[in-house]
Amino acid sequence: MSLLTIGSVAFDALETPFGKTDKIIGGAATYITLSASYFTKNNNLVAVVGDDFPESMIRDLNSHGVNTDGLQVRVGEKTFFWSGKYHNDMNTRDTVEVQLNVMENFDPVVPASYQDCQYLMLGNTAPAIQKTVIERLNSRPKLIVLDTMNLWIEIANPDLMALLKLVDVLVVNDEEARQLTKEYSLVKAAAKIRTMGPQTVIIKKGEHGALLFQEDRIFFAPALPLESVFDPTGAGDTFAGGFIGYLAKTDDISFDNMKRAIIYGSAMASFCVEKFGAERIMNLTQDEIDERVSEFVKLSAFGLN
């Protein structure tokens, strides 16, 4: 089924204990669509870049089956840029520089060819922009998944609360869930979020896995223990792309299938951290994905005598 992703396509400059990069392709929508491309072939993007964004990078997206008809290229303007430096524990980072550039006045345009989308992924960006995309669709998608972050919880809370009423699934990390609800218990936080609108809540816990909440049901997906984490940038977006990509492929939004989707999303995220930026998820094979998913299954499989 068709998937539409809204979010940022950007330049990142990264520094980790393993090295540093100058400008490389980044942005929430980049990671989401690349990850989802391994599952669904009807993979549509709405984003904006400046005319400094290389055609070769757009061709890279196209080569992965990402439809860029909804990618605006603003002449005379620059692409969104983010620079960050990770601490030695790789769990914390400092933002060195942010240049909003074209994102400052982004007005998302949904092409007519995208109007039949059944799955909508609202990648991390301002809640007002995310809401605009929903309003510009002729009909409501079968499933709307929202990703947000602490910045919007802090500075755009009224917009975010209005948006939450329109979505089916919220994806946040544990810190964001606590910030949004003022609850330390993630079980209580998920229950409170469900009163805000989304009936399914996914709380990411980084190297400690992810939790899925729906009604009175809870599922925990482990994270794969890795010998080294090279670059965590984009791992959460890659997770979201694998999750919604798998749902779009199977066209099944039951709780049991969402559990499987979380495993696939976790597998995709585990690849992302192995190289700088999106490099690793641009060059995967189906055999690698299947093998990695099997590793996740083995992590949680056990028998009772």
From TrEMBL:
Q: Which domain of life is it from?
A: Bacteria
Q: Name the SUPFAM superfamilies on file.
A: Ribokinase-like (SSF53613)
Gene Ontology CC annotations of this record: cytosol
User: Which InterPro entries does the entry mention?
Assistant: Carboh/pur_kinase_PfkB_CS, PfkB_dom, Ribokinase-like
Residue spans making up a coiled coil are none
Residue ranges crossing the lipid bilayer per the database entry: none
Question: Carbohydrate kinase PfkB domain: from which residue to which, for each copy?
Answer: 21-279
Query: One of this protein's Pfam families, by short name?
Result: PfkB
Instruction: Decide whether keyword Transferase is in the record.
Output: yes
The protein's UniProt keywords, in alphabetical order, are: Kinase, Transferase
Q: Which Gene3D superfamilies match?
A: 3.40.1190.20
Any one GO molecular function term: kinase activity
Reply yes or no: does the keyword Protease apply: no
What's this protein's name?
Sugar kinase
